[in-house]
Write a structure and sequence with these properties.
- This protein is mainly alpha-helical.
- It folds into three domains: 48 residues; 94 residues, Type II secretion system (T2SS), domain F (Receptor-associated Protein), CATH 1.20.81.30; 220 residues, Type II secretion system (T2SS), domain F (Receptor-associated Protein, Up-down Bundle), CATH 1.20.81.
- The protein has 16 helices and three strands.
- The chain has a three-stranded antiparallel sheet, covered by helices on one side.
- Strand 1 and strand 2 form a beta hairpin.
- Helix 11 packs antiparallel against helix 16.
- It is flat, with a radius of gyration of 28 Å.
- It starts with 7 loop residues before the first strand and ends with a helix.
- The relative contact order is 0.09.
Length: 400
Amino acid sequence: MSRIGAVNPFLYLAATPNGGRTFGLRQAKSERALAERLRRDRLTLLRTWRLPSALAVEPRLGLKDQVELNSQLATLLTRGVPLVEALEVTATVVSPAMQPVVERMRELVAGGTSFAESCRKVGVFDEMTAAVYQAAERTGDLGGSAAQLAETARRQHAIQGKAATVMLYPAVVLTIAVCAAIVLLTVVVPRIGDALEGAGAKLPAFTKLLVELGTFMKAQWLWLALGAGLVAIVLIAARVWVAGVVGRVSRSLPAFRQIVLAQESARFFSVMAALCKAGVPLADALGVATGAVRHPKLNQQLRSLRTKLVEGGVLHNLIDKVAALPLATRRLLMAAERAGDLDTAFDGLARDMADELERRTARLMALLEPAVIVVMFMIIGTLVLALMIPMLTMPNQLVQ
């Protein structure tokens, strides 16, 4: 798939309209392109520092932008506004990073390129979106398909938000606990430890270890900070591998396993509903929608279903072999296949799976809250007890 062009990350210094200075981080094809983008934001580029290309993030149309873009297109196209003019308006509602992309699409469409092909050329749309647009152009219902894509993106955005909530809460609480522990270990523990030793108290071995560790961290804070920064850079550069590891771990944990499956199922059924309503053949829709599923077992079984369907298999029997899906879901799909109403079934299952994900997320959060509090107490409480024990036993030591 062709792209607008390779992007590079830049750290920049720019002048604001009121004469101030501002730093920022953006991606652009070149310094000239960056200067043009900043000019549109009423900023004047003063200096740039090009960062390693490994830190670049491949430009993709985010779910929030997908909702805005498709909602605007649906509103305008269903009211008879020409596509070129609709794209001109749409460029004003997406994020600043995607505005040049929509402008490029408008130029391509004005030059005679089909809308679906222009989506593929700019390279920020997934194959599912391009396939829906291509089918919509054949049926002449681009506005209706844009409305369906907006609803699909809205559902996926809600699903993504639920998953982020599950991961964000413990991450924030544990980060606060770790930061508090570092402050205690490097500032409080050494001072109190030295004061107790000066008063003649005999420190336990564990307290001595913490005092020495805190003293070392305080003396070598610069090297430790550089090491932490290096680790962060490595994790960013290897973000794809890190995401894969996190995914495998989450799929193996009992508490997360069903949530991940519900999330992947909701995404799959949302995509299938959008493709089928746009008139995409079932086999082609399965080929595109399966690519949106990252759950290994479900992905493998769906790919097997599509392969056997293309080879002439009976869909009714093939659905029953997708054991990764719940039995009730398979029975509903089989009934819808007999009635010839699969697109409605896909849409209903997408809503049901989203509701199921919300319920399971609420249950997991109810379990995570006390568990995270216990872990936080263990981290900070260990440091506090290491100081309290010698303070409580010091009077006895002085009497002896």
